Amino acid sequence: MDKPIESKKMPANPWEIVYRGVLFCIEKHKIKDYERAIRPPGARMILRNSEGKLLITKEHRNEISGIDYRVPGGKVFNYLEEYLEVRGNNEALIEAAKIAGQKEALEEAGVQKIENLEIIKKSTAGATVEWDLYFIRGNIKEMGAQELKDDEAEQGIEIGFYTDTEVLQLIKEGKINEGRLIAVLMQELTKA
Question: Taking the CB of residue 9, how many other CB atoms lie within 10 A of it?
C-alpha cells in the first residue's frame, strides 16, 4: 500500500519582505524558492477632447535617452509604505489611481476637469515584478495651464491632440516607447 504524500500547510500569507526601500521591496516566498519585486502602481490617462482627439504629451525621457510621446500619468503612491497600507484593497487602489491620474493630467497637461472616468485596463508586469499600471479613460471638459514640477519644468512637456490615425502612426514610427501603453492604445484604437 502506498504511503500518503505529506503536504506542507501553506501559511495564510506565504510571503515575507526581505528588502524594503523607499519605492521598492523584495518579497520571498516562505515555502517555494521564489522572490518578487513590489513597486507601487502607476496611472496612465487616455483622454479625449470634445473633438474626439487623444491628448498626447511629448517629453524627454532619461530611460530612453531621448524624446517619447506618452499620455499623462505617473505614480499612484510616492512611497512604498503608502501602497502597502492599501495593497489588496481593490476599491481603494482604483480610487487612488483615479485621483493620481487626474493630478498627473493637471500637472503635465493642464487638464482642469475630466468626466466619465473609467478604468479600462489594469496591466500587470508579470509574476516576478508586481508593478501594475491602471489605464483610465475620460473626456476632457476643461483645460488650463500646466503645473509642471521640478525636473518636468526643467525639461518641459509639450502637449498635443491627435487623431486615432495619427496616434497609430506615432506607434508605427516607434515614437511611443512604453510597451504597455502601446498595447492598450492598440486595443482602444482598433476596436471594431
Answer: 7
Cell numbers 512611497: residue:
79
The secondary structure of 68-114, three-state, reads EEECCEEECCCCHHHHHHHCCCHHHHHHHHHHHHHHHHHHHHCEEEE
Has domain 41-122+133-189 been given CATH number 3.40.50.300? no
CA distance 55 to 70: 9
β strands within 124-178, DSSP E: 129-130, 133-143, 157-162
> Which residue has 510616492 as its cell numbers?
78
Scanning the chain, the segments in alpha helix (DSSP H) are: 80-86, 90-109, 150-155, 164-172, 179-189
CA angle 168, 173, 178 (to 5 degrees): 75
Tens-binned pLDDT, residue by residue, of the chain (192 aa): 566 655 556 667 889 999 999 999 999 999 888 999 999 999 999 999 999 999 999 999 988 999 999 999 999 999 999 999 999 999 999 999 999 999 999 999 999 999 999 999 999 999 999 999 999 999 999 999 998 888 777 778 999 999 999 999 999 999 999 999 999 999 999 986
User: How long is the chain?
Assistant: 192
Long-range contacts, stretch 18-21, CB < 8 angstroms, 24+ apart: 20/80, 21/80
